[in-house]
Design a protein that fits this description.
The chain is α/β, with parallel strands linked by helices. The chain has five helices and seven strands; from the N terminus they run H-E-E-H-E-E-H-H-E-E-H-E. A four-stranded mixed sheet has the order 3-4-5-6. It is elongated.
Length: 178
């Protein structure tokens, strides 16, 4: 009888250790798998001119990365490359679309520089610039510590730098479903 009880105890312990190991594998190993930064389901996205109007749509995979602000920035940029690698020299017209570069995070405000901001302010039009800034704001405010986004760039015809919150864009954009 004693041997049976010991055997059941050892078997129970082994099953428990196996279960804990599988859970750790799921949460540590699988969570660290690289993401496809080109996959727009990791960010909020603007849909302009739909039958329902202009929509902001939340990507269904954003929950998997929303706890890492730097990863949200890379996902929004659609690239794992450093944002500086996309910077167009000052004396040339930008050929790459705007990208975000995280500068700072303090008191609930994520400060980002817009790389190739002339593309944003001069080439995307007012709707395109609004779509970019709205999607960026909604994406970065998915992080639990971010309530607003400060955009740093030189003001242009279609966009103005400053601090933006979701409420600003809710006046002009509908929140749509995927």
């Amino acid at each position: 009888m004693k041997k049976t009880t010991i055997a059941i105890g050892v078997l129970s312990a082994a099953i428990l250790i196996l279960f804990i190991g599988l859970m750790a594998y799921q949460f540590i190993i699988l969570e660290k798998m690289p993401i496809d930064y080109k996959d727009e389901s990791y960010t909020w996205n603007a849909r302009v001119g739909t039958d329902d109007g202009d929509l902001l749509v939340r990507g269904e995979k954003i929950d998997t990365i929303k706890h890492d602000l730097e990863t949200l920035v890379f996902a929004f940029n659609r690239s794992g490359s450093p944002p500086e690698s996309f910077r167009t020299t000052e004396n040339r017209e930008p050929t790459d679309p705007p990208r975000l570069k995280l500068l700072d995070m303090q008191k609930g405000i994520a400060t980002v520089e817009i790389i190739n901001s002339r593309y944003l302010t001069q080439r995307m039009g007012s709707t395109g610039a609004s779509a970019f800034m709205a999607a960026a704001t909604f994406t970065l405010t998915e992080h639990e510590d971010v309530a607003a986004v400060r955009f740093v760039f030189k003001e242009g015809d279609h966009a103005i730098p400053g601090v933006y919150q979701r409420e600003i864009f809710r006046k002009y954009w509908k929140i749509g479903m995927n």
